[in-house]
Fold each of these.
Amino acid sequence: MVVNLRAISHVKRGLNETADIPLKGRGEVLPVSRGYLHLFRQM
């Protein structure tokens, strides 16, 4: 899945080195697995 960085509200850290990404203006929350979490560490 490709997500526009401008659509990301914030990155919320989860359990077991995972994260959730709520999208601006939408009720969706996208889960991020450990394998891709390193791409969001600077946010």
Amino acid sequence: MADDYKGVHDTLSEVLFESLTLQYMERAYIRDGIGGVFALNERIAAEARKYGWGTDAPLSDVTAQMSAHFVRELDAEYFPRTE
């Protein structure tokens, strides 16, 4: 049962991570073209590698550890608040 839960948790983490990443990439493309998408992809990958991405670490562990600061930084850059 615990393995089933872990599998579901890993899948949900992956879907959420991809969804969030796609939102930023769409904004990067609109703002900077395909070069902006490549640059953002490298930036996200570099951050994820800090937390074990590309190793045997499950994606759910990587996304759980990625800093909220990094996500806030991307939000501010790609979804600026206008007042």
Amino acid sequence: AHSGSALVPWAVARNPAGTAHKFGMRLGCNSTNSRDLGLCLRGKDFKEIIMAQAQFMDWFMDPFVPFPPTVEVLTTTTGFVQPQGITFLPEHPYTMIKQGRFQRVPMLTGVNKDEGLLFHAETILMNEKALGELNTEFNKWIPISLMYEDILPHVGQRDHVSQQIKSFYFGNKMIGADTRENLTNMYSDRFFVHGVQTAAFNFAKYASVYPFLVTYTGANSNLKLFGIGEVKGVAHSDDLQYFFEMPNMAINPGTRCEIFSKKVIKIWASFAYYGKPTDTWISSMEWLPVQPVETVGGVPTHYYELNVEPRPIESPFTNRMHFWNHLIDTELHEELIFIPYRNNKTAFGGMPHPPFSPYRQF
């Protein structure tokens, strides 16, 4: 699992009915009944739908995943039940992972050092309007960007959480080039690191989990594709070039990047064959799975750092993960619970979201 898990905030829809209704209105489909809404959307040209989704933003690029998977339930006179037949997501992933209801096989999982550099730190720093709004109205826009607006229905609650986040990452500093690393860390932690580590710890109770951290900075980066050539870091998806042939990120033969790529692929191949990463190219540097004592905070978490010289390291995220663990435990706990029909979106013909049932087969 590279740079994600089922527990990152963009992996599961929290207000699917509200989102579907809002999207329908943009296309002139104003019905609050899911079947009517589905029929109306089916009558639209696919280009209209694509264009509407491309403009489906509340602030800047967000929500950048407006239609993630949805927990599938049906409403009855006595409550909520699972629909008959096969469902893609019958319960919230956190519940299923916590209870060990998944394929209990060994797992490699990890993140890149600067995940949030591309999503969204550097793109915000390049956009004068977005940067200005974040500095002057942080409490207004950051709940949308960090995806907790739907979790906290009251403005006061959102403001309280927003100020905790701002204080932790920026203190009294302005957001700008001088706080690029702070902004990157904020998005890295929220969008990637916390969800990956939380999933890893819960998986580790049932199967071996091998966490990794990519710190190798190659000659190519997705940052360049966005016109961000001067900034260095290991951004989201930069690791894919070492596993796959990518037209815009070609690796030249005989370079350090090619050597690194071949060595990393050998590790992944050894994991696929043996169920553990054995070919670490520095034999003395054994890659150990997550230990039980690490999952409860008894000792620091260890990652296997993937660089020219790989090695096991203590997690660089410890304090940041403590912050998010506390914030989710005390303020954002509903994020890990499925609550049907958030914000009183109880219409849709007794169905929690379109498309559903036959409409899921558009």
Amino acid sequence: MTTPEQFAITAAKRYLQNVVFVDDEIYSRDTGKPSAAIAVELPQFKAPIRRAQTTESITARLKDAGGNVQPLDMSPSKNTSVGEAAPFLKENEDAAPTTSHEENAGVVFHPRQLVDSFAQQGIVCALYEPQKGFSTDVNSLLFKLCERADVVILDWELFGGGGNNILPLIENLANQSQNAYPHHSRLCVIYTGTPDLSRVNARIYDHLKAKNIDCDQDPSPTTLNSGSMKVVVLGKPTSGRSESQKEFEVLEASLPERIIREFAAMHTGVLPAYALSGLAAIRGNTKRILDKFHKDLDGAFLVHRAATLRQEEAFEQLPELLAEEILSVLTEVQPNSEVIGAVAKGVADKLPFSKAPWQKDGTTSAQIIESVKSFLTEGISALSGKQKALDHKTISEIHSAIGCDQSKADHRLASLFNLRTHYAGTAAPSLSFGSIVRERLQEEGHYRYSVCLMPLCDSIRLSNKDGAKTLFPFWTLSQNASGGGGKRGVVVRVPGDKYEELYMFGKARDNLWVEQFLPSENHIVEAAKENDLWVFNADGKKLEWIAQLKPAHAQRIANDVGMSLSRVAVIEAEWLRRKADAKGDER
């Protein structure tokens, strides 16, 4: 196992908190209590037999030729440990066999042992047995129980439905993961005794596709992905399963460890594993964070709010306060340099180099790739020659060699650094300091991009009395990096899953402009939805909202604008000005 995988597994163990296990044989039909573990002997039969549910159902099947019940030892076998395949039921060879492969379970397990095995990993496991004819719509008890769980484990053969009872639930969970809660990560495990696990996976895939729900087949024949949900089919140990699918068999006692590995596999990599680890740290420190927002502060906060109410709403300051506390938690759980180095090396060693970034006389492609891998873990010192300068061209060649130009990973990472994420389902964007907008030009497919420079405090509490409008200043951003000096670059995602590189430079006379807007009832300038786009309506033009810069990046641009406006024109000797502006050791 590589270090990145270990890092992801450790993060998954810390993150996972709850599991829902759904089965139709958790409770006794007679007492309503959890079924007892049963250990009995079973010879080999050509056809599978039904798994016993209660003592009475077993006793009813243990009659000799005269109709007399044979005694049966119901105590657990001394040679059977928790989670191991227990001995089977003794039955006459002429007993009527059932036709369902699902009923050849082969493993007896007490519900408490299942709960205990998850508890050993620090995970709460809820056992749920639905009633026959259960509903799976979004208002059903079963769906409400599953929708918030980190992991859902479903018995494929609920009430002998052959998957027909479960497919609608999987459909609704997958639909939710893509729409209602697109950012809720969930693992859905189908735990079944069906011999052909890949066939179960194919049925789920076909069902989701038939319902127009996006899903992708994983390289594993028993796994598929749909939105933020991963579906994996695991097998109960049973006979009749091909050797190629034996690796997907899991004893119930081993389910927690396997589920942790499957969940970690969803987040393997430097950034995914770190994000999962960070979220786990936040989950584990909720009490510390909540203590900072104690009710004893309510009075002082209301005084603060009342004093500033004419300028701004104090409740709008709370997200930043909360974010700062979360940031404090994350900085406390940073992995040490040894772990970081090991994880970076593990990921670098697996990067798919399609080619050598550059060619040097007397050096093979393999040697160059190894030097680049060393650079990715050790830094610039691992490079040699002109590449050691690490200019833009060198970085672009490395990006191209590892496929960033195809996946747009370089642009996606850049936008992550300088943009705030606008999650679907949140409020409409408002025009304020750092908002990036674009205006369609007369030329087909051409736009003018600009950043709003209105200070945040001047973007709220706007008056719209008698149709009063407010002027907002903007600075035009260039889509071309050439020309000028001291440029500031940002990357934004635009409709069509494309990315634009935007640069700030130039003079105020060429780039500074203003536009007026009518504030909304909320006394801010809000965007309106038009054809899946957020649009600000100005006098005679429409400005499409594209992104929101993070405060520090917006402030840097504003600082550069301020410096350009505060330049002092003086009369001086030209030779002295040129010498002062010269680069290097010009004489």
